[in-house]
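Below is how a single chain appears once it has passed through the pipeline. First comes the sequence as given, then the structure the pipeline wrote out for it. We keep one example in the README because the format questions we get most often are answered faster by looking than by reading.
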Amino acid sequence: MKFFVSRDIFSSPRSKTARTIENLPSIRHNWGSFKEEELTQILHRLMKLFFPVIFILSVLFHAEASPLKRPLSFQHITPKEGLSSEMVYTIAIQGEEVWFGTYGGGATLYDPPKKICRAYTTKGEPMDKVDKGVSINWQNLLPYNHVSVILPDVDRIWFGTYFYGFGGGGISYYQPRRNPPWKRFNTNDGRAKKVVSMAVDEEGVWVGSEKGLSVLDKRTEGWKVFYSARDSLSGNFVNSILIQSGSVWIGTNGGVSRFDKVRKTWKTYSQKEGLSETEIKSLASVGQKIWAGGIGGTLSEYDPVSDRWKKIEPTDPLKNGGINSIAVAKEKVFICRDNGISIYDLPTRQWESLTVADGLLSNTVFCAAEDKNSIWFGTDKGVSRLILAP
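Resulting structure:
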């Protein structure tokens, strides 16, 4: 793209604009002595001079930070490529490794350069070829094969599972340097059995379930506290956890709760405080703000000055789809919905969308995660990797 600016704006010796530039020091020094009519003429000349420059910078800025470049390039990973189950609830990336948490198939570790999948389940790795008639054959790995959360930590990766019966479920971690590398934990008397969300800080692991919020001490590797609606939590079904400096934000079936880790105090937010709906499915840090995604598809943004929430109004065609999760990557916000992905470009404040028409495997999208050159999406039909131009 080329831009042309008239040369005589800058070079003509008789140009009023040129004379204005030459006299800028004098104008600044005697600013208070000019009449209103003279000031107006000076400002008009300056605007005429700098408008082309401002216009060029504006266009270049938007060209640099623009929506996704189309046509889009995708790579798909399904059971044909070794994925342990086509329904992928969660994705985590640590270094060159990509982990997929699936429904019924445990966790799949994928090596992008080699395009190799390796499955980890309750049946061991590799999985037992013959079913011995035992529904849960604990060998060393996951608490259960419905993996709802995968959470990278400094030297390990945490896994949260969701179990409907007795004897399984809960959390575990994988630490390559440990022998054996996997460790399972008890379910905190059943309160951390059906795990829905997790977050980690320096001291502990925060585990959300359908019964409340449990905290595991990383040093002792024992459960140290449990919170529920009786302790001022907005709801017992903990869909999302976000740790931000000294606060822990929790999205539940009853709104949003904020826990002050120092003062040990709670603050609850509901529709009375501006939330667009009651059940919050996902929380995410978006720049200096916090976004909350409701299960019905609405978005809210937290305003720390007023200590209230305000509704966000997307303009993309998918804005009414139910929200599963929110991810921030590559200066964009990806809202994973039941009908595709809404994308908000932070620099340009533009909305766009992704669906099967653009190359996704499915419009039911559960999660998103980024690596250096791509965005990974987990769907009910496998994984779609959006490859970005370098």
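The first helix runs from residue 8 to 11.

See the next section for the split statistics.
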